[in-house]
Amino acid sequence: xxxxxxxxxxxxxxxxxxxxxxxxxxxxxxxxxxxxxxxxxxxxxxxxxxxxxxxxxxxxxxxxxxxxxxxxxxxxxxxxxxxxxxxxxxxxxxxxxxxxxxxxxxxxxxxxxxxxxxxxxxxxxxxxxxxxxxxxxxxxxxxxxxxxxxxxxxxxxxxxxxxxxxxxxxxxxxxxxxxxxxxxxxxxxxxxxxxxxxxxxxxxxxxxxxxxxxxxxxxxxxxxxxxxxxxxxxxxxxxxxxxxxxxxxxxxxxxxxxxxxxxxxxxxxxxxxxxxxxxxxxxxxxxxxxxxxxxxxxxxxxxxxxxxxxxxxxxxxxxxxxxxxxxxxxxxxxxxxxxxxxxxxxxxxxxxxxxxxxxxxxxxxxxxxxxxxxxxxxxxxxxxxxxxxxxxxxxxxxxxxxxxxxxxxxxxxxxxxxxx
Amino acid sequence: xxxxxxxxxxxxxxxxxxxxxxxxxxxxxxxxxxxxxxxxxxxxxxxxxxxxxxxxxxxxxxxxxxxxxxxxxxxxxxxxxxxxxxxxxxxxxxxxxxxxxxxxxxxxxxxxxxxxxxxxxxxxxxxxxxxxxxxxxxxxxxxxxxxxxxxxxxxxxxxxxxxxxxxxxxxxxxxxxxxxxxxxxxxxxxxxxxxxxxxxxxxxxxxxxxxxxxxxxxxxxxxxx
Lengths: 420, 225
Hints:
In chain A, helix 4 runs parallel beside helix 9. Chain A is α/β, with parallel strands linked by helices. Chain A contains 11 helices and 13 strands. The N terminus of chain A is likely disordered. A 6-stranded parallel beta sheet of chain A has the order 10-9-8-11-12-13, sandwiched between helices. Chain A has a 4-stranded antiparallel beta sheet with strand order 4-3-6-7, with no helix packed on it. Chain B is mostly helical. Chain B has a domain of 79 residues. Chain B is 72% helix and 0% strand. Chain B is extended and about 70 Å long. Chains A and B meet through helix 2, helix 4, helix 5, helix 6 and helix 7 of A and helix 1, helix 2, helix 4 and helix 7 of B.
C-alpha cells in the first residue's frame, strides 16, 4: 500500500518534472516568438512607409444616356485602404488623351471606388489610371484601355415615363380629334365654374368691380397661363354686363399678357370702347408688398367678386380672409396643395388642382378643349387601375408571401418612378 | 402675324422642351429657355415700373381719391431706386456691392422693407384663427368630420393628448390620440393629397398640350381657339 503510494507519488513528481522541463523550454520560445512578432510588425510598418499597394481592376465604361461627355470609372481599392490603420490617404485620378500627357483631374478620398469623369468630348478617346497615395509614397494602377465616350440621342432609361406620356398625350389627342368630328362629350359640372356667372351677376347688381388676382408667379408658370385663359372668359362677361375689372399684378409680363387678354375679350364682346389699359396695373414683385396693396384695394374699393386663380403661397389666406371680410363672393383655385385648405376655408368656391386647368376648356365649351379633358380622364383611369393593382398585390403578398406578388408590386413602383 | 408668330414660337419651344427631356444632347435647352425668359422679364420690368409711376403720378396730379397713398408709393419708389442706382452711402466706392452693409439701400432694406414684410406675414396668424373658426363649424356632415380630424391632430400634437390616453393597453394603442393623429396625417390625408397631385399632374399635361397644339390661345389675346 505504502509502496504503491510511493510509486504513485513518484509518478506524479515525474509528471511535474516533465511539465517544468517543458515550461522551461517553452517560455523562452514563446517569449522569443512574441518578441520576434513585435519586431516583425515594426519591420512591416517600416516597409509600409516606403510602399503602398495600388488599386486593382480599374474599369472604365461609357456613361449611359448622356451627350458623350462622361465616362464612369470603378476600381477595387488598395489593400492598404483600411478604415482603421490604413495607409492610403487618398486617390489621384489621371486622364490621358489621345496625344496628351497625363493630367490629374481629381482627388478622391480613401474608401471611394468610383468616379465620373465629366467634360469629355464625344469621339475622342481617353485612358485613365488611379494612383493610391500614402503619406510618403504613391502607387499608380495599370493604365486602362482607351475608350471613347458615346453620345446617346434618346434616354431609354426614361422608357416608362415615355410610355406614360405617350398614353396620356395620345389619349388627349385622340379625344380632341373625336370631339372635332362632332362626338358629344360629357363633362361633369364643376361648382366653382358654374358660379362664375352668378359671381359676375352679383357684381352687376351691386355696381361694384370684380377683383381678379392671377397669383404671384410669372408667365413661365402654367398656373398663371391657366388663370389668364379663365380671365379671358370672365372679362368677356364683364364687358357684356359693363362691369369694371380691377387687376393688380405682381409681374410685368403678366401685366402685358393680361392687358392683351382683356382687350381681346372686350373686342369679342363687341365693347372695344369700354376697354381701359388701367384695368391691369403692376404693383410690385415683392410678395408681401403686393399683398398689402391688394388688401388695400379690397378694403377701399370693396369689390363684389374676387377671383383668386393661379399660383399662391403664404399670401393665399391673407388675401382670401380680407376678401371674405369685405363680403365679396370669392372663387379661388390653385394647383398648390398646401394652399388649397386655406382657400376652401375662406372662399365660397374653390377649384381644386386639376379643375383650375380644366376651367378654360369648361367655360369655353369648345369641343376640342373638352376633348382634352376626356383624354385627361384616361390618365386618371390608368392611375386608378395601377393603384388598385398595387394595393391588392401588396395585401396578398402580406398574406401569402408569394414572391411573384412582390415582384409585380416592385414592377409597378418602377413603372411610375423616374430613373435618376 | 401678330398672333401667328407667338403661336409658332410656343409650338416650337413646347415640342422642343418635351424632346429635350428625353434626349441627352438637348437636355441643356430647358435651362437655356429659362435664361431667355429671365432676360425678357428684366426688360419687361421697365414696363412694370413705368406703369406704376404713370398710374400714381396721374392719380396725384388729378387729386383722385386716396391720392395720399400715391405720394407714399412714389416717394418710396424713387428713394429706393436712387439709393440703389447711385449707391448712396456705400462704404466702398461705386464698384462696391449695392447691398454692402452700411449702404443706404441695405439700411432701407433691412430697417424698412423687411419689418414691413414681416408685419404682413405676421397677420397670417390672426387670419388662420378666423378661417379655422369658420371652417371647423359643424355645419354639415363633412364639416363635422373635418372638425373631428382637426381636433384629433391638434390634441395629438400636445402633451395633454398623450396624457389623456396613454393608459390604453398595448392591443388598442392605435386609439391613443397621438397615434390617431399620425394615422390621420399619414393615411387619409396623404391619400387625399396624392390624389390631388395626380390630378394636377394630368391637368398640367392636358393644359400644356392645349397650349402647344394651339387649341388654347386666350393668353395671347385671342379669344377663340
